Amino acid sequence: MLQAARSAFEEQGLGVPLGEIARRAGVGAGTVYRHFPSKEALFRATIVDRIELFTDTARDLADVADPGAVFFRFLSSVVRLAARNKALCDALEAAGAGRFEPSPGVGEDFDDALEVLLRRAQEAGAVRQDVGIADLRALLVGCLSMERALPGCGSDGGVPGRMTALMCDALRAERAVTELETEPVKRNESRCGVCGAAISAARTGRPARYCGGACRQKAHRARERTRQT
Amino acid sequence: MLQAARSAFEEQGLGVPLGEIARRAGVGAGTVYRHFPSKEALFRATIVDRIELFTDTARDLADVADPGAVFFRFLSSVVRLAARNKALCDALEAAGAGRFEPSPGVGEDFDDALEVLLRRAQEAGAVRQDVGIADLRALLVGCLSMERALPGCGSDGGVPGRMTALMCDALRAERAVTELETEPVKRNESRCGVCGAAISAARTGRPARYCGGACRQKAHRARERTRQT
Amino acid sequence: MLQAARSAFEEQGLGVPLGEIARRAGVGAGTVYRHFPSKEALFRATIVDRIELFTDTARDLADVADPGAVFFRFLSSVVRLAARNKALCDALEAAGAGRFEPSPGVGEDFDDALEVLLRRAQEAGAVRQDVGIADLRALLVGCLSMERALPGCGSDGGVPGRMTALMCDALRAERAVTELETEPVKRNESRCGVCGAAISAARTGRPARYCGGACRQKAHRARERTRQT
Amino acid sequence: MLQAARSAFEEQGLGVPLGEIARRAGVGAGTVYRHFPSKEALFRATIVDRIELFTDTARDLADVADPGAVFFRFLSSVVRLAARNKALCDALEAAGAGRFEPSPGVGEDFDDALEVLLRRAQEAGAVRQDVGIADLRALLVGCLSMERALPGCGSDGGVPGRMTALMCDALRAERAVTELETEPVKRNESRCGVCGAAISAARTGRPARYCGGACRQKAHRARERTRQT
DNA sequence: TATGAATGAGTATTCATTCAT
DNA sequence: TATGAATGAATACTCATTCAT
């Protein structure tokens, strides 16, 4: 059933009727609900492992030599895989808009792992300094849109990558032309996701996500609630 | 009524219920159908003039000096305007996926005008040679996705532009680090949309769209049918 | 399993999903069905003993001195216990509407035992003469409704009793201001439940329920069928 | 359609499928939703006028001589009318449990009008002093339960009133036997419905419902939200 | 015998489109 | 011609009951 849901979501995105999934799985609609409490829960279940795979890969690459090449290669491969997968595209877009979280922590773990690769590439001088992790998330969404928009690519069965290569060039540090107007949107410079208070950026350690324990706890409870939905 | 539809579509995209549009216009739903045979026809009607405006602007810029600056400025302004307009975003994305055409010829005219600016900028050495008009269309869709994905931009009321600036950098000739894998998809190198035969690229004049008069006529009749739907 | 069903029904009434009961019992839904042919049968099984307990208590009180006090105390205690038990409330209400019978004979035994207390109290001059057992059954349902309707009582965890005390006052002989319009509905004056013929009221012995042996047998077979459902 | 909904709700209560209502009205389900945004809104619409009728009647009776007789007659007639109407029964019961409000203010107006009759009857010495408006609301629910529980009454087409007459006797002041344990639950002695703070009872004027302007405003906004549902 | 996965009819709600007036 | 009431298919979700293992 998960397989049926996966393929249905990958082809048609979050919009597939649940009945279609049940039909593909050869079961009744009720059976789907027996296993997953809601359509969104099923959707989450079909993509968490994909995102975790990305996260794991990124973590594995954190120590590999030539951080610049590693970063660009990783970015390209993520786009290449996700562009064929409307479920991932929908999820990334919805997550960007704050309408969706695959599973508590999964999105953040991915961000963290990606940020490490970005930082290393920046420190190695391979990637321009004025982009942050939030830029990168948006860029990912954009690449997917582009690859899918390009005729003969994405869902059409073509080989994606062309537009992503273009984007990678945009990120390269050498000969940066335009200076981006605003400061890079780095997560550890942004605000507490719960109360909105400014968070002072610590130089070392994992960047703080909340302004303090109270808000972290509040967010944790919210995640718990989400997990039960 | 067109005004009501326009604002509704701009705010909520193709997803607005038709009843909402009728309500805003202060008329009955039937009256909307009296003037437009379907919701999609109404949608088309609300965006053609926007696209034509872009087309006209692009044509006006075709003779202005400093083709590189002109090109980048035009691109940015299109994104800036469209990012606040969910109707345009939806239309561009759907058009890219081949699911939608604003009106026969309108999309192509825009492409043509945009292509002229692109060519001039390329000839002036400002834009890398390995991108084509199809790339540019995809890139437009991607920019809109990115701007809307970036927190505090797009629909959130922020000032778009950051990601577009990045994209523009990607297009600059002096940044062309990677050679794009596949050949740029140039329209006049593609195939006849009707019979699929290869079309020999003419060096001058408006690029041929069909392999000959028979196919052009066939396509015209198809468009007539579409227009009535 | 019976215990799990009991607590579930007591808390949420007949409306609990069967799956919830199975979950509480730590068994599969199929196992519940192995023991009870339907949800209603399980429901019946969880309340018969409660009603039988009431019946037994009433029988024990049939000889106790001060019939008036006994009657009122019994009535109050039934309400007090049942008000906290949504299963009993639902059962009593449905039984009153003729939609439900806990088990063949159980409801009638309760009625009989209650009727004895009522008669004794009436003979002792403590309860007004113009109420019958059918009135009392309705009154029970009403008391439960009232206790549950009163804020801070019933399901809210408050102490029930206030409205029941009022009802008891209504039953007291010395309060009989109004003469009840219609005759009290006495069961032994009603009609044969099978053929509808009038049943002559015997002064002594257990009141006849059917007009004769033929109808009694017919009713018995019907009960057997019900038991299997 | 309102007529169809009314009769359906009256017969089967809030539980009627919306499709049944549509069928009775001879229209599609969508048409019902055209006129009423939700099933509950339709339900409200079918009972507000009934409750307002009660309220108006009660107000008209506020000046009539012999307050005791007026009070009891009014109570009986409300029960008589409502007992045949499962919609009203459901509404009164749900309202008592705080799960439902027919329309902003309607329930409170009814309470106010009823309270006036109660107070007058108490001042005239016709009704015992130890019952309050909250008791009366519960009592109403109880009477309806009883009348419907009595065989041959309520929905069965019989003449209701018997149990209500009994309840009226319970309310009569002359020779009150039991003193009700707790204080009467009078609304103006209870707590602020918003913040729960105690409200000091004013001797004159309309009894305060909220502890102050802040809470009154909060409740007003809540009602506004309800009205839009 | 016990299990729990599967079933499928039923419910409220939405919305593009049609059509009588 | 303009209206807006009517339509009905579609969708997510629930739950009593069945049945293969």
Q: What is the name of the CATH topology of the largest domain in chain A?
A: Tetracycline Repressor, domain 2
As a whole number of angstroms, the C-alpha radius of gyration of chain A is 19 Å
Helix content of chain A: 55-70%
Find the biggest chain interface: A-B, 44 and 43 residues
Q: What is the CATH H-level superfamily of the largest domain in chain A?
A: Tetracycline Repressor, domain 2
- The low-pLDDT segments of chain A are 154-158, 182-190, 201-205
Distance between the termini of chain A: 19 Å
What is the count of distinct domains of chain A?
2
Shape of chain A: globular
Structural class of chain A: mainly alpha
- CATH C-level class of the largest domain in chain A is Mainly Alpha
Oligomeric state, counting identical vs distinct chains: homotetramer
Content of β-strand of chain A: under 5%
Biggest pleated sheet of chain A: none
Count every helix of chain A, treating DSSP H or I runs of 4 or more residues as helices.
10
The H-and-E topology of chain A, N to C, reads as HHHHHHHHHH
* Mean pLDDT score of chain A: 81
What is the strand tally of chain A? 0
CATH architecture of the largest domain in chain A: Orthogonal Bundle
Summarize the structure.
In chain A, 60% of the residues lie in helices and 0% in strands. Chain A has 229 residues and is mostly helical.
Describe, in plain words, how this protein is organized in 3D.
4 copies of one chain form a homotetramer. Chain A is globular and about 55 Å long. By secondary structure, the first copy, chain A, is an all-alpha fold. The first copy, chain A, has 2 domains: 39-185, Tetracycline Repressor, domain 2; 188-229, no CATH class. Chain A is 60% helix and 0% strand. Chain A has 10 helices and no strands. Chain A has helices at residues 2-12, 18-25, 29-35, 39-60, 67-83, 86-96, 106-123, 133-149, 162-171, 213-228. The interface between A and B is large, with 44 and 43 residues. Chain A binds a DNA duplex (21 and 21 nucleotides) through residues 17-19, 27-31, 33-35, 37-39.
